[in-house]
């Protein structure tokens, strides 16, 4: 697109006609992850300074109104899936299968570009971690997290999410 290579530009800096033309000229791929798994990964990567997962979650809940970190913001607020018609939605936990399909559709060699991924091992690990971390939270924190991520849970099939109830 004409301004694409000039500098880093946010989509909001374009007018509606330009946005429509630009989005229509690209293959749009959205990578999504269970919001509870995103919280766990953020905590484990040390992006929160809290000593426990429960206190980290409380920091997230307290800061949500003050433009919290992009690491834990709801996906629907970051990627606008209701406004942008994505061509592909790739779920974390199914990366090997979905990336293989995406590369094939793009006409790229599948085998040489994919890293070694073990989706079932990733899913099992996050299931176990989720159980451990979720048990640390108070009933109020669980309720508030479910409410905070309600639009992500409605927009994407995170059927096994601990926040889905």
TrEMBL record:
Topology in membrane: Single-pass type II membrane protein
Compartments where found: Golgi apparatus membrane
GO MF term list: sulfotransferase activity
A GO cellular-component term linked to this record: Golgi membrane
UniProt-recorded name of the protein: Carbohydrate sulfotransferase
Record PANTHER family: CARBOHYDRATE SULFOTRANSFERASE
Main localization category: Golgi
